[in-house]
Amino acid sequence: MTKEETNEVLNKFASEFPSIRSMNATERQTKFKLWYDTFKNVPAQIVNHAISQEMISSHSGFAPTIGQVINRILESVTADPETESSDAWNTIIRFIHNYSQDDYRNHYDELPEKIKMLISVPDLRAIANNTPEQNHNFEKPRFMTQYKTVKERYDRQMIAQGRIDLIADPGKMKLIGFGNGK
Q: What's CA 155's distance to the chain center, in Å?
């Protein structure tokens, strides 16, 4: 989001919310810097969509906060945490079935970054040596819970870096009218 686009957002807030309209120049400059620094690497279309969604659904009478906008961006452009964590578990199971335990280290870098944040080569070996019941009843739920936490932290970091492309669900991107889903 450019400085001009950030200024447009604050003008939009000023037209809708008396608390923003009544800010003095120093307060407005501080708010501008905070919003610009937070969203300077994020496409304005995505930020504006999130702001609109928050304004439509909120009845507080106050302008959306940066945290609320980031939450809306996460909801708008990323995959459902439950689905993504289940898909990540399935990726681990496919990895285990595709390679022998001796090959895990050689192919470990092929795993997605979020999985590697949680699972090491010894962990892969342990999962491979478990019974299917142990994996289903214990390992999978534990992994999925941890994965959702890592996913949220990772996704927030990617938003801050403007790397929406690394976390975006193409179907959701299309729904909000962002390019061709990329």
A: 3
Distance, in Å, from the CA atom of 136 to the CA atom of 47, rounded to the nearest integer, reads: 39
Residue stretches of the chain with pLDDT short of 50: 180-182
Whether 143 contacts 115, CB under 8 Å:
no
Q: What pLDDT shows up at residue 182?
A: 44
- Type of residue found at 122: P
Contacts of 72 by beta carbon, 8 Å cutoff, 6+ apart: 49, 50, 51, 53, 54, 64
Q: What is the pLDDT of residue 179?
A: 57
**CB-hemisphere CA count at 13 Å for 125?**
8
CB-CB contact of 77 with 171 (8 Å):
no
162 phi-psi bin (left φ>0, alpha ψ -120 to 50, beta other): left
pLDDT of residue 170: 80
Mean pLDDT of the chain: 90
Helix axes 44-57, 3-16, angle to 10 degrees: 10
Pick from 73, 78, 74, 70: nearest CA to 49: 73
Quick one: how far is CA 32 from the chain centroid? 23
Buried b (16+ CB within 10 A) or exposed e, 119-133: beeeebeebbeeeee
